[in-house]
Amino acid sequence: MELNGTMEIDGDGVLNIAGIDVCTLAEDFGTPLIVMDEAEIRSNIRSYIEAFEKYYDDYMVLYAGKAFYNRTLFRIMADEGAGIDVVSGGELYTALEADFPVEKIYFHGNNKLSEEIKMGLDCNIGRFVVDNMCEVKLLEKLVAKKNAKIKVDIRLTPGIEAHTHEFIQTGQIDSKFGVSLVENQALNLVKEIVKNENMILKGLHAHIGSQIFDILPYKKLVEVMFDFMVKVREETGKEISELDFGGGLGISYVSQDDPPAVDEFVRELCKKVKVIAEERNYSLPRIIVEPGRSIVGTAGTTLYKVGSIKQVPGMTRYAAVDGGMTDNIRPALYDAVYDAFVANRADENVEEVYTIAGKCCESGDILIKDIELPLLKPGDLIAVTSTGAYTYAMSSNYNGVPRPAVVLVNEGEANVIIERENFEDLIKNDVIPSGY
User: Fold this and answer.
1) Which of residues 241, 264, 295 is at a domain's end?
2) Which of 152, 210, 311, 414 is the most exposed place for a label (fewest CB within 10 A)?
């Protein structure tokens, strides 16, 4: 079992995070409970910034808010000097409520609504990352009404398929995201933008997928984007000054996972950009990356209490916990795998194979299949590791289950950053019409 961040096992065999006994956290805040390790978050974002400081002069690190967002986290990102990318009016609103520097907000999304665009225009965000011609036409109308000037990047679909689950591939040609290089679609979008005096084209963006372990697709992406930049220069005279390579760098969920180190990823990316820029006789652009999972993934641990335990004769031994797909949909959605251990008896030897089941009325509500653990009993505390990304952000109230609390721990202190929902929260928007 790999211990992330500030995790350690104390003399009583109990998991501690940031110097706090997780049994105490469970007693104080209840379960399920998502515990976020602030030191690990800060260490992860710093690893990107420190690497770029070594290998490249002009860069920007944006945190991908969709992985896990709230005002406290956005303030941590601002404190560390990072920007953020948002993909909806709700994420943008949260950033504004956190007093995040607007010039460091990049607004993504394949179908931005008029109201969302107006919100971004009103607060003068740093970039609109345009996805398609329909969005450009809508932006043209809205910026003309406001008589505003905006900076935009264009999201490309570069035709690069990363080796990851098909549901989290985003760079292939047939994608809901971005504008294709095929049949000059992207070039036509560039021409539409550069002829509009209210829109300033700054850069290109591409995102090839998520949970990626291989740096090679990123190197290929550099070549594809520079080739297009050269074409743009030839056709329009416009030089692109920013290249945004998205996020997607993988993390270790289980012992078999072997993602590249952030320093290696940044070094190889910067090296490739320098080589290709020289080959194409192109000025070095600003490099932008948008890590999300690799910032918060390993910083999160979800604590569950074991409830019922049952053995199907000759088959599976199930241990059911007090959460499941409502707080972590990833195993059911695309077969994501996790590691876990018994947090209150973390030093005991494994004795049995269990399948950790959630409490929802779905056969697919399985958090972990066939994991070796000490003999379990009701009331044991299960710690599922690396749950900081795409868990709470994708949580739901299915089966009338309230969302869990999230606590931020650091140097012996624990602070709630998202309150636990209660049953009243489930019906606060529920309206009974007159006469019923």
Assistant:
1) 295
2) 311
The domain that holds 50 is classified in CATH as: 3.20.20.10
Asked if the structure places residue 3 within a domain, the reply is no
Mark whether 214 and 174 lie in a shared domain. yes
* pLDDT above 90 (res 204): yes
Q: Is residue 401 part of a domain?
A: yes
For the residues 260-271, what does the mean pLDDT come to? 97
Question: Residue 417 corresponds to which tokens in the numbers above?
Answer: 């950053």
Give pLDDT, residue 210: 86
For residue 88, the enclosing domain spans: 38-295
CA atoms within 13 A on the CB side of 352: 16
Q: Is residue 2 part of a domain?
A: no
Domain count, the chain: 2
Q: Which pLDDT belongs to residue 90?
A: 97
DSSP E strands in 193-344: the ranges are 199-205, 242-244, 286-289, 300-311, 317-321, 340-342
Rounded percentage of the chain residues whose pLDDT exceeds 70: 96
Residue 22, phi-psi category: left (phi > 0), alpha (psi -120 to 50), beta (remainder) = alpha
Across 34-43, 69-78, 164-173, 195-204, least confident range: 164-173
Q: What is the mean pLDDT of residues 128-147?
A: 94
Instruction: Supply the CATH number for residue 333's domain.
Output: 2.40.37.10
**Polymer length of the chain:** 436
Cβ burial, residue 13 (10 Å; 0-12/13-18/19+): middle
> Which is nearest to 399 in space by CA: 432, 355, 359, 431?
359
CA dist., res. 245 & res. 290, Å (int): 7
Answer whether residue 173 shows pLDDT above 50. yes
Contact partners, residue 183, CB within 8 Å, separation at least 6: none
Do 197 and 319 fall within a single domain?
Answer: no
Question: Known catalytic residue: 361?
Answer: yes
Are residues 326 and 178 part of one domain? no
pLDDT in tens, 320-348: 999 999 999 999 998 999 999 999 999 99
Catalytic residue among 23, 123, 270, 361: 361
**Residues contacting residue 16 through CB under 8 Å, at least 6 positions apart:** 6, 7, 8, 9, 10, 22
- Show the beta-strand stretches assigned E in 170-316: 179-180, 199-205, 242-244, 286-289, 300-311
